[in-house]
Structure formats: structure tokens, C-alpha cells
Amino acid sequence: MFHKTLSIWLYFSLCTIAFSQNSFNIKGSVVNAQTLQPIGGVNIIGDGLFSVSTDKGLFSIKNVAKGHYALNVSCIGYTPKTVIVHVELQMKDISIKLDEAITSLDEIEVNGKTKHRLAKEFSTITYNVSKEFLEQNRENSLMQTLSKIPGVTTISIGSGQSKPVIRGLGFNRVAVVQNGIKHEAQQWGNDHGLEIDQYGIENIQIIKGPASLVYGSDAIAGVVDIQPNKIPNLNSFSGEVNLLGESNNNLLGVSAGVKARKKNWYYRSRLTYRDYGDYKVPTDKINYENYVFELHDNHLRNTAGREANASFNIGYVADGIKSETSFSNVNAKNGFFANAHGLEVRTSSIDYDASSRDVDLPYHTVNHFKITNNTSIDLGNHKLLLDLGYQNNNREEHSEPVPHGYMPAPPDTKEREFNKNTYALNVKDAFKTNERHDIVFGINTEYQNNNIGGWGFLIPEYTRFTVGAFGYDQFEINPDLHLLTGVRYDFGQVNTQSYVDWFPSIRNNDDNTVSNVFLQRSQDKNLNFSNVSASVGLSYLHNHTTYKINIGKSFRMPLSNELASDGVNYHMYRYERGNLDLDPEESYQLDLEINHAAKQYSLGISPFINFFENYIYLNPTSNYYETLQIYEYTQAKVFRIGGEVSASTTAFKNLTLNASAEYVYSRQTTGPKKNFTLPFSPPLSGLFSASYQFKDIFFLCKPQLSADYKVTADQNEIVPPEEVTSGYQLLNMAFTSNIYMFNKNEPVEMRLKLNNAFNTKYFDHTSFYRLIDVPEAGRNVSISLTIPF
Q1: Closest by alpha carbon to 571, among 412, 766, 357, 397?
Q2: Are residues 467 and 422 in contact, defined by beta-carbon separation less than 8 angstroms?
Q3: What pLDDT shows up at residue 300?
Q4: pLDDT tens by residue, 584-631
């Protein structure tokens, strides 16, 4: 019996070995022939062979016998293609390029339009950011990751916080939208970052220029639209683990995500944790307010932090309906370099250099909780889209409890607390009156209430309600010429609450006596605002060239800090005072774009002209409050002009070259700062990059070496109290490769990056720390792995 069993086992083993020696795997990728972007959901079918490409365009067919095969490759929106494959020993991965489809059947033209084609037909200036771009360029924050895009920069503080700037405008002039709902935190603050987990994001659309027509107030400069992820494939389960380590601040990070779908129901989930220490700068001392601060081992002390994020999405999809509900929570604790919060306390017992990973005073904590629901209902000729959202942003700032002016020593470390609740509802109806009109009507409404706490006052408690109605029509004059027109009306109300100091201040009376007075910092005030915005634009596609022109009027409601602040902002070491008489900002902008995309190269230029009727800004005055200079919010007319140019080529088979430049010129034409520029105006800059893909080396698949060389000019155009910033050159390098380890179909993605290769000491004019003479981070080596399963 034993010998029979052994014989049968040997027989099947030898058959298996023989079969494995005569069977092979077909592996490859499918990309868009025009954009070279990967295409998911492509069917690859042969005689007894079948596969579907992943979101990254990859596919694999196992156990294929040696020989010649014809594979039929098809996907909705693309022209089908037949590929002949020779299966043999040491065969290479195949690359399939599909052309976007325009087919004709019985004299009825059917256009398979991709997102890329639809973006061309819209007259607004947009830039689509893919998942591959986000993964290859990932930095410490989402906005630092996006800063390689021409026209996009950041206002950053420390190593983990930054806010978006589009064409020189930031804060509440740029709307950040996630899953259709505007992200609402404390955007008005210089040191308030963006509480969004950048892991797991697959697609972002950046709109350059006014977008108030659809998004309402706060989109006067542009939009960062973080769009919902694709629905997982039927009966699928997959996930990934992202690992990250950095040398400059000893960062360790891990993010794990899973997604699955049965038939109608699907879900996605992700957990992220990051812990980092003080980051290093290429200097050993800081000179601020005539004080010299020594830095131990080049560490910018107390810039350590940690972040823990979680999200869960559940969705339902069926004929005519799709609904997805998202839950997310972002929690972070970050230290502030003490001189970014006034001046270091001379009597402090804190040893900032005791450990590079301690988070000491001053620091801030933030927790952002968000629930959104996106539902679309297809009613034949009409498509209803409904977005619901609730957000709670709780931010606390802690500092040493020392007396300030007439203020006695505070009872605890909690200097300020902001607790903001936001409720949002968007409703849109998209329909066609005929084949040439795409019409959308919509309503946006939002309610906020912001409560305050702590012993320091800067802005009052307030409520804010906004409602807007809009409509636009995309008219197809002919298949290559499209006209976009739209109009919008908005109404808003801001109610500020009164606030009285918890301590008395000394005041001199007219009769030469002295009184102890509890000062009132804000009052109960109801303010109403309304505005009309409009836009009209043309898009023309001729062969491989796209021409766009768009002119629009947009607006922005004043914020509570602009209206009613009355306190010391220690992050800027100044006293800020609001103005209840401010009008809404109104902006008029002309945008142009010419983009030519051929097979081996592309060229693009996108200039703009912008005029603000009443730009709101914080103006330094000659008055002082308890030794601090008083800054008051005021308005002025502002003229701006600028734009971006870009070029890329793949003249050589494995070599890709890219170049881009951006410039913004701003001038205040009225007001106290007439003939000055605007704060945080980015200088002229250019980015040159090159990437070369090598042949496979040992276990490395598709290894690629790339380099970015950034050149920035001097910024002599400043507005006091800013200082002139010298230009700089910066070299960053990266090596990426796929490694087939655990999953034969999905490789491990490895990225090795070297930022600031020469440890250059430079100042970023749009950095918050630039104001206190702190240079940007020094040399940094990072390694990251994305492990699929």
C-alpha cells in the first residue's frame, strides 16, 4: 500500500514539474495612448485566456503554454485592439496602449468620453492629479505633495502642517473639497494645517482660478477637489500597507487600507499612524528680534509631532442609484518652535534639547471628525446628486502660563480652544434638453457654529449661515467647440457673540483717575452679505491642441477674524483688530490656456489677469497695544497678472524630460499699502525634471531614476513687515521600482527619495517660519514601501 501511494505521489509530482516547465505567465500593463495614464477594468481575452486590468493598469494570465496567442483588448471609451503575444522562455512584460474611442454607427455618432476628454471640453483651467503622481511625490503633508504642480505652492509651518496656495492666494481664498463637501476647519490661521489623511486618495482635481460658480464663497482663487475613489470591482477584496521612514526628523509611518465588494455593497477602510521628531535645518543658530537662539545638533527644537487617522466608507450601488457614506477622523499633536509663538520664555524650566521626540509647550492638538454621504440617482434624462456632510474641528493651543501685559498668570496651559461644527447640504440636478446641452442646477447650503475657550482671546464665538443657488449650461456648438455659461446668487449671515476679558485692565479716565476695567473684545452683531457671480468660457479642440478662454466674477464672504478679532496673535507677535464694516471680496479674472499634446511631447501655457475690487488684508498701523504693534483689517483694490508654462518630451525611449515655470505679479492700487505687493507672494520659479527607466535588474522590475531641479528667483517684491528673500536652487532625486515578492500579480512598490541633496540653506518666501528667520529643512532621505495584498 505504501509503495502504491508513493508511486502515485511521484507520478503526479513529475507531471506537475513537467507541466510547470511548459507553462508560462503573461504579464503586462494597459495605458492611455495619449496620456500614458494606466487604465483599469480592461478586458484581455484570448483563446481560453482571460484577465481584467487593475486600477494601476496591470494584468496577469497564469499557466499559459508556449506558443502564439491573439489577445483581444477592450474597454468602454477606447478603441478595441488585438495584440499578438509570443509566449516563450524569458519573455518580457508587454505594454498595451489604447486610443480613446470615437465610433460611428448608423450615422449616429457615439463619443466615448474619458475624464481626460471631459476636462478638455470644460473651459475652466484644471489639472488632474492621479494616484500614481500622489504615490511617487508623497511628502510630509498633502499640500507639500501637490506643490510640484505649476501654480500650486504652500504656506507651511514645521514639518507636518501646510495650507494650499494657488497662484499666490491662500487661506480661505482656496476651497478644499473632499467627497463633494467643503473641508471646514480653522483655515484663517497661519499655523492651522489641513486635517486630511493623504493616504488612500486616488484622484484630485485642481481648479486654477475662480470657481465660486459651483463651490460658492472661499473658491475665489481656486479649488483642491479630492474626489471619491473608484468603486471596487465585483466580488473583489484587496488591500495595501504603506511603510515610510525619513532621516531628517526620524519619521516612522504606517498606513493600512482594505477594500472589498460583493454585488451591490462595498466598503473601504484605512488606518494611518505617523510619529516624527524635531527636524533639522542647515544652520546652528536663529536670529529673531535681535535674539540669537542656538540650535542643538541643527534640530529646530519642539517641532516633533504625531498623527493618528482612521476612515471607513460603506457604499451601495445598483441600477440607477449609487450611495456612499464616509466616516473619518484625523487626530494630531504638533509642537511649535517656541519663537514661532512670541519669544521663548526666559524663565522656562523646559529643556527643549533633552529629546528630539518630545512635544513640549507650546504645542497644539487638533481632532477633525467628518461624516459625508454622496448619493446619485439616475432618473433617465435627469441625474440627481445629493451631498450631505457634518464636520467637527476641535483645536487647542497650549503654551506656558505666564502673565502678558495686564493679564495675570493664567490658571492652566490652554491658551485657546476653537470648536467648530459644520453642517452642509448640496443638491444638483444634471440633465439634457437635447444632445448638445448639458445643464446643471444646484443649491449649496452650510451652517457653522464656532465656540471658543482658553484664557487668550483672538476671535469671538460666531455662527455663519450661507445658501447659494446656481445654474450653468455646457453647450456643444460642435464636437470640438464648447461654450460654458453660468450664474450664481449667494446669501450669507454671520452672527458674532460678545466677549469680555476675564481679568481687569487699567484705564486712565478723563478726570485723571485710574479705573480697573473688564474690556469688551467683541460684541453681539448680525451681519448679512449677498452677491452675484457669473462665468462664461469657450473650449476649442483642434487636432492635438486645446484652446481655452474663461472670464468670471467670484466673491468671498469676510471671515469672523477679519470682522471681529481683537487680541494678541502670538504666532505673529502682533495685536490684530477686525473691521465690522468690511464688504465681501469681489474678483474679476480672465483665464487663458493653450495645451498641445503630441505623441512624444507636450507644451502648455496658462496666463491669467485678475482684479480685486476690495481685497481684504491685515495692515500694520503706527499704533501699539502693550508694546505690540496693532494690525487692522482693511480693504484695497488689487491688480494681479501671471501664469504657468510647461513642457514635456519622451524623445528617447526610456527618458522623459519635463520643465515648468510660474510667476505672479501683484500690486495694491489703493489703500495704505498702495503700490506694494500682497503678503506671501511666491517668486518666479522653475522646475526641471528628468526620469529614466532602466531594464529589469535582478529582482527590480521597471526601475526608474528621476531628478528634480528647482530654481527660484529673489523675491524683492514684498509688503512690510516682510523681508526680501534670496533665490535658491534645490536638487531632489528619487529611485522607484517594483519588486515581486508576496503577490505575483501585484508587486511591492519601493520609493527611495533624497530631498535637498546638497543640504542647501534657503528660505521659502511662502513659509510661515520665514518670518522668524528659520530656513527650510535640510537634507532628507526617505524610503517607502507599498505592499499590496
Answers
A1: 397
A2: no
A3: 92
A4: 999 999 999 999 998 889 999 999 999 999 999 988 888 888 778 889
Question: Quick check: 537 and 477 in contact, CB under 8 A?
Answer: no
Cα dihedral sign, 587-439-229-690: negative
Cα distances (angstroms) measured from residue 750 to each of 46, 736, 787: 32, 6, 9
Does the pLDDT at position 338 exceed 90?
A: no
Beta-carbon neighbour count of residue 297 at 10 Å? 10
Alpha carbon 454 to chain centroid, angstroms: 31
CA 71 to chain centre: 39
The residues near 145 (Cβ < 8 Å, ≥ 6 apart) are 134, 137, 138, 139, 198
E strands of 379-524, at which residues? 382-398, 414-431, 437-453, 462-478, 481-496, 499-500, 505-508, 514-517, 520-522
Q: What is the DSSP string of 86-141?
A: EE-TTPPPEEEEEPBPEEEETTEEEE---HHHHHHHSSSEEEEEEHHHHHHT--SS
Fold adopted by 116-231+241-788:
Maltoporin; Chain A (2.40.170)
Architecture of domain 14-103: Sandwich (2.60)
Q: Are 355 and 328 in contact (CB under 8 A)?
A: no
- Say how far apart CA 429 and CA 515 lie, in whole Å: 62
Select the more confidently predicted residue: 246 or 89. Answer: 246
User: Which whole number is the average pLDDT over 502-528?
Assistant: 90
Buried b (16+ CB within 10 A) or exposed e, 447-468: ebbbebebbbbbbbbbbbbbbb
Classify 686 as helix, strand or coil: strand
- Distance in angstroms (rounded) separating the CA atoms of residues 266 and 475: 36
Q: DSSP secondary-structure letter at 14?
A: H
CB 665 within 8 A of CB 618: no
Cβ atoms within 10 Å, residue 298:
16
pLDDT surpassing 60 at residue 470: yes
75-114 pLDDT, tens digit each: 877 888 888 888 887 778 888 988 877 544 444 344 446 6
Helix (H) or strand (E) segment spanning residue 591: strand 585-597
Q: Binning pLDDT at 50, 70 and 90, where does residue 353 land?
A: confident
Question: Rg of the chain's alpha carbons, rounded to an integer?
Answer: 29
Domain ranges for the chain: 14-103, 116-231+241-788
pLDDT for residue 743 is more than 70: no
Q: Ramachandran region of residue 769, left (φ > 0), alpha (ψ -120 to 50) or beta?
A: alpha
362 preceded by a cis bond (ω within 30 of 0): yes
The Cα 724–Cα 681 span in angstroms is 11
Taking the C-alpha atoms of residue 42 and residue 71, their distance in angstroms, rounded to an integer, is 12
Q: Residue 98: name the closest of 27, 28, 26, 39 by CA.
A: 39
Q: State the residue for C-alpha cell 468602454.
A: 76
Residue with cell 495704505: 672
